[in-house]
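tool_call predict_complex ligand=manganese (II) ion
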Amino acid sequence: MGYKLVSRKEKPDNTVVKVGNVIVGGDCLTVIAGPCAVEDREQYIQVAGYLKKLGVQMLRGGAFKPRTSPYAFQGLAKEGLDILAEAGRVTGLPIVTEVMDTRDVEAVAGYADVIQIGSRNMQNFILLKEAGRTGKPVMLKRGLSATIEEWLMAAEYIMAEGNSDIIMCERGIRTFETHTRNTLDISAIPAVKHLSHLPVIVDPSHAAGRWGMVAPLAKASVAAGADGLLIEVHPCPNEALCDGGQSLTPGNFAQLLGELVPVAEAVGRKCKCEAKHLVKKSII
Ligand code: PEP
Ligand code: MN
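tool_result ok
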């Protein structure tokens, strides 16, 4: 048996996921940004304030990091969640953060406005069920080598728990190409939107793995119909403890937001970050 509940056959109308005042899957593009990991309280609160001024709708940051090497920075765990909560209070913006372990689902759900299921856990079915049961919106990243069908089946696990607040996130897949960290599958955007009623956002940062390619991939994603973007922004990418090479500086990110406006408009989407690139001049 294939996926059912997430299918557009089951529900022809688009699902709109509401996270506080933020709407994912509506007329407006939803931009989520922040550093890969929460590294330091002051640094996070500062960058969060800046992103808020730019018109970003949600903040991201990992407290639990899935690292390829066990010796790499693994995240601040509970301390990171506290910092995220403070940033949420200070800015009034919802927080997106990853949960990796079923034992942490309750704690993460207590802090996060959106629970992120990372690529490496897309087929961790127990985790999907637990995340679904929290009733919190879930952002489901596509597995490193997952087909679109497998990805939709993973979403079905969440929805089968009675939770239809699911945001699909394309973040690149593993192919023979090694120039980029992953290959951004632009075709997944129209494919998932055709097959399912769920909103689809794109993370060009983890796809590219190189900051210089983030802006063109972000624009291509919006042009192809993405409902939003997830972008890594770090105040000082050279010093980032995680994913510095793909992180935009706040200045480069502000410039990208400005460039996204006409692209969004060309495909009939509003961008709340409109004209916010002007803010750049007064802040940086
Ligand atoms: C992340 O968003 O920081 C992350 C680890 O992403 P992914 O699961 O797509 O690799
Ligand atoms: Mn990252």
